[in-house]
Amino acid sequence: MRKIIFQDLGLIAYQESWNYQTKLLEETIQVKFDNRKNGSKNATKNHFLFVEHLPVYTLGKSGDFDNLLLNKKQLEEKSIAFYKINRGGDITFHGPGQIVGYPILDLESFFTDIHKYLRFLEEVIILTIAEYGLVGKRSKGETGVWLDAGTPFARKICAFGVRASRWVTMHGLALNVNVNLGYFDHIIPCGIRGKAVTSMQAELGEEIPLEKVKEKIKKHFCKLFDAEIVNS
Question: CDD domains annotated for this entry (predicted)?
Answer without folding.
Answer: LipB (cd16444)
